[in-house]
Specification:
This protein is an alpha/beta fold and about 300 residues long. It is built from 14 helices and seven strands. The protein has helices spanning about 45-50, 50-60, 75-90, 100-110, 120-130, 135-145, 150-155, 160-170, 200-205, 210-220, 230-240, 260-280, 290-300, 305-310, and strands at about 5, 15, 20, 30-35, 35-40, 65-70, 90-95. It is elongated. Pfam families: NPH3 (PF03000). This is NPH3 domain-containing protein. Keywords: Ubl conjugation pathway.
């Protein structure tokens, strides 16, 4: 996993009840309110780096202390704090896990190169292009984090870039795969296998949300570069990752179903329906046992069975 460290100063943010302040001899002249948290900060160094704050401060006139509400900032308090710490020069660690909220918040605040040279947005863009998208697991983790900010991630092109990166690596011939991947098939040991298995990529993408998984499989299939059996194996791995074991399926009494159980059944129904819709029509692309398992689960959940999908 790739990381990027920015800033050198120690963290001087301090919490007192619902207020976050920066320890400083200079009095605060900027109040930022996000949800239930108040930030007592300073116009300098935040305003010179944030185009949005520049406009909002101008709209406030010559007030000595400005109060601004940013309740709709993507990522909330955590992403704003990453941006604020960047402005103060406080050391922050960026990775695939927090890139998306940081990037969306920085774009929201207008932390672009045109506002200030060496600003946060261009640094984040460089990190995305040179580190995250170059990595296999980094691209997957980043893509998975977009589920919390889907609209922003879609509009900023993060989702498309991550999918393109993942698909490009999936289509890489196994002998040319040099990055680490997860492969835990029974009886398989990397110590005894020097060659990369053809389905090396299936377990890692099974961590994704079903809609993102569908986008990747659809993109891979559109290239016609992988055999239907390999697509079928990816569907099988995903089903094993998320769907219940058919030997343990037991429907709870209708009057005893909790909200959590209902939500889980709805999620599993969507997974079954989506997987069934992606099964290649080629003979032998999936095993009869896998189809039977999907059929049993679909009947239990009341979803669309793979047979119905294939006949439609």
């Amino acid at each position: 996993m790739k990381y990027m460290k920015i800033g050198t100063k120690p963290d001087t943010f301090h919490t007192e009840q619902a207020t976050r302040t920066v320890i400083s001899d200079v009095p605060s002249d900027l109040l930022i309110q996000i949800n239930n948290i108040s930030y007592l900060l300073h116009k300098f160094p935040l305003v010179p780096k944030c185009g949005l704050l520049q406009r909002l401060c101008c709209d406030s006139g010559d007030l000595e202390k400005v109060s601004i509400e940013l309740h709709d900032i993507p990522g909330g308090e955590e992403s704003f704090e990453l941006c604020a710490k960047f402005c103060y020069g406080i050391k922050i660690n960026l990775s695939a896990y927090n890139f998306v909220p940081a990037f969306c918040a920085a774009k929201f605040l207008g932390m672009t190169e045109s506002v200030d040279k060496g600003n946060f947005v261009p640094k984040l863009e460089a990190f995305l292009n040179s580190c995250i998208l170059e990595g296999w697991k980094d691209s997957i983790v980043t893509l998975e984090t977009t589920v919390k900010l889907p609209d922003w991630s879609e509009n900023l092109g993060i989702i498309r870039k991550c999918i393109d990166s993942i698909v490009e690596k999936i289509l890489t011939p196994p002998p040319k795969v040099t990055w680490s991947y997860t492969y835990t098939r029974p009886g398989y040991s990397k110590k005894h296998h020097h060659s990369v298995p053809k389905d090396w990529w299936t377990e890692d993408i099974s961590d994704l949300d079903i809609d993102l998984f569908r986008c990747i499989i659809t993109a891979v299939r559109s290239t016609y570069m992988l055999p239907p059996q390999l697509i079928g194996e990816a569907l099988h791995v995903y089903a094993c990752r998320w769907l219940p074991d058919t030997t343990n399926i037991r429907a709870p009494p209708p009057d005893q179903s909790s909200d959590d159980e209902t939500l889980l059944m709805e999620k599993n129904r969507r997974i079954v329906d989506t997987i069934a819709s992606m099964i290649p029509g080629d003979k032998g692309s999936v095993s009869v046992g896998f189809l039977l398992r999907l059929l049993i689960i679909a009947n239990y959940l009341g979803g669309v069975s793979p047979r119905q999908r294939q006949n439609s």
